[in-house]
Write a structure and sequence with these properties.
By secondary structure, the chain is mostly beta strands. Helix content is 11%, strand content 42%.
Length: 427
């Protein structure tokens, strides 16, 4: 059957890869082979050209025929089967195979049938929705001797329809390819490995990379049994669990955490970026209804507090009953500066002065806050009621003033007249 990546959907229906089938029983996966061509430039430095070629990862036994007329990597039975670690459905799997250089180290892998001149490949399978990333080291035995290969400077040739029989030797995976967490949490960064033989000489390390620098957080050597640092339970490493528990997260916790497992001559690692995120707490300085007197003004404030990272967007807009929102002009809205709190979070205020007319009565005013941590913006609203000044109050005030003046006159006038009479008698 003719097979191309453009015919992938048809091939899925015809052979082994179906959504109803368990991943452990999958027969094959489309898996592009990223080939390398290395040359020495005029300055004596190696230059690598990457070439993506059509290929298939096929699961089966030694001697099986390829299912497709393309490069086929046949993964034969091993104590390490990458399929047992897969989750989800086949259509979410993203597979890629690359060559692997041992860095000039020539040694026999300690399993039956291995040779000094074995060739290595890595098969990396990612879940499209970030459930996991798994890297498997595939060992391929050739008829060439180690002296006939100069590692990456003279790779073994792989032709377009070659069948390469391989065996999975080691698996390194993480189920936390990226982590987003809030402040003062204790997340666990998952890292797991498996090797096809007992008592491997394994070294496990965790490092943190930030601002271009790497710092070691933890290391363990099965050969010496010694460990440095903290965060990993050494008792679980022998079973393949090298997960790292962070202390309470703070702003300086952000960065890329690197879990690495070395079983010579193989070195596998996964980068796990960790970012902090806190949702803003949003409030406005009025209740659900605001009543105002015509001619008065009011300062309306919308506060977004306790968010991280820094970027936040605050908008004020209004809408008439049954109408679509009409954003207020930005010139009417003023913003405070970002306020940094001791815990590393930020706050921001957006405010404007409202001096409504009678026509504004009935409008709903809304503050909308958008932030990276929010799936949908947070909205806080109030309805405006505008009323004319009450004339009755004016009449009552005027009448009260007149009465007060009359009382004063009635009390003061007799005293004034009596005083004038007393003055005339003296003269």
């Amino acid at each position: 059957m003719f097979w191309t990546f453009s015919g992938f959907t048809v091939a899925l229906l015809c052979l082994g890869v179906s959504g109803s089938q368990s991943l452990y029983d999958v027969q094959w996966l489309p898996c592009p082979f990223v080939d390398e061509k290395v040359q020495i430039n005029e300055e004596g430095h190696p230059e690598t050209k990457y070439i993506t070629r059509e290929a298939v990862l096929q699961f089966g036994n030694v001697g099986d025929k390829p299912l497709h007329p393309t490069i086929t990597f046949l993964a034969t039975p091993s104590k390490v089967d990458m399929r047992r670690y897969l989750e989800g459905t086949e259509d979410k799997l993203q597979c890629e195979i690359r060559r692997y250089s041992t860095g000039g180290i020539v040694m026999r892998w300690p399993t039956a049938g291995a040779q000094d001149h074995d060739v290595w490949f890595t098969c990396t399978i990612r879940h499209a929705e970030g459930l996991f990333v798994i890297t498997t080291f595939l060992r391929h035995t050739t008829v060439a001797s180690a002296e006939e290969q100069v590692d990456y400077l003279q790779w073994m040739t792989v032709n377009d329809r070659d069948l390469l029989t391989t065996s999975a030797a080691m698996v390194v995976l993480t189920r936390t390819p990226s982590v987003e967490v809030g402040f003062l949490k204790e997340p666990i960064l998952h890292c797991q490995y498996a090797v096809d033989h007992k008592l491997p000489n394994a070294t496990v390390e965790w490092r943190l990379q930030k601002h271009g620098e790497r710092s070691k957080l933890f290391s363990y050597s099965s050969r010496t049994g010694k460990s440095e640092g903290s965060g990993v339970a050494t008792k679980t490493i022998a079973a393949g669990n090298a997960s790292f528990k962070l202390p309470l997260t703070r702003k300086h916790s952000e960065g890329t955490y690197i879990c690495s497992v070395m079983v010579p001559p193989l070195y596998g690692s996964h980068d796990i970026p960790l970012t902090l995120s806190e949702q803003p707490r949003v409030s406005i300085n009025v209740g659900s209804t605001l009543s105002m007197i015509l001619g008065k003004d009011q300062k309306l404030i919308c506060d977004a507090e306790g968010y991280y990272p820094l970027d936040v967007n605050i908008e004020w807009y209004r809408e008439a009953a049954g109408g679509s929102p009409t954003p207020l002009f930005l010139k009417n809205v003023l913003y405070s500066s970002h306020r940094l709190h001791q815990d590393g979070t930020y706050s921001l205020s957006a405010f404007f002065y409202l001096q409504p007319s009678l026509e504004d009565s009935g409008y709903k005013y809304t503050c909308r806050v958008s932030h990276k941590s929010l799936l949908t913006p947070i909205r806080k609203s109030f309805s405006l009621i505008v009323a004319e000044p009450d004339s009755t109050l004016w009449y009552i005030t005027a009448f009260g003033f007149i009465i007060a003046m009359l009382v004063i006159l009635c009390y003061m006038l007799p005293q004034f007249l009596a005083g004038r009479k007393a003055a005339k008698k003296r003269f």
